[in-house]
Amino acid sequence: MLKTANRVLLGLLGFGLFALGGGVLLGALDLQRHWDFDMPGWWPFRGSDDVVLDTEGRTRWREENWWWPTVIAVLAVLLALLLWWLLAQRRHRLDQVLVNSEDGAAARLDGRALENVIKEEARFLDGVSQAHVRLTGGRATPTVRVRLLLEPHADPVQILGHLSMETLAHARESAGLDRLPSQVRFREVRHRAQRAA
Predict the structure, then answer these.
(1) Which of 8, 32, 70, 197 is the most exposed place for a label (fewest CB within 10 A)?
(2) CATH number at residue 102
């Protein structure tokens, strides 16, 4: 869905910029006269002295009461759409993983199910309070992002060893993947200092 929206938006933006640039170039180089062809009557760029917006076009609506609120509203909507598009570009969650079934057919594993299995296994490691797991990347080449909230007594080196050698190895083998790149982040649980009586 996101890839399709990106392609459509970029295609429309590219086509619009290409048309505008071509129109300005036709007028600036006076190609209509040199190549002896006519443009439609509504075409704004007819010669090298034409501009994108003339004085009348820039000042026509300035005295109208609705002009500035409309301009501000349109720019605000455009800004909101661009921000939405920018935030949508963040790495999305992988919904399916292709599993090699070794019989020539590719099976699909639910990405959320694999995330939940890794998360539950990671939560049972000694010293882990909470675990968050997200699959990103491609269906055939997934990547795991793991965030662990550690208890104060936790040993991060030992937890990382168990996570990579056991938990992630189980996930890689069960999905039939050759490799499962991972990124692990640790955070410590905040707790109040206890007073000694």
Answers:
(1) 197
(2) 3.30.70.1350
End-to-end CA distance of the chain: 61
Do 112 and 181 lie in a common domain? yes
Contact 166, 117 (CB under 8 A): no
DSSP state of 39: -
Looking at the structure, tell me whether residues 25 and 108 fall in a common domain: no
Q: What is the DSSP letter of 125?
A: S
> Where does the pLDDT of residue 24 fall: very low under 50, low under 70, confident under 90, or very high at 90 and above?
confident
Angle at 51 (CA atoms; ends 46, 55), nearest 5 degrees: 120
Judge whether 171 and 118 are in contact, CB under 8 Å: yes
In Å, what is the CA distance from 147 to each residue of 55, 67, 80, 119, 132?
A: 58, 50, 30, 9, 5
Burial of 136 (C-beta count, 10 Å sphere; 0-12/13-18/19+): middle
Number of domains the chain contains: 2
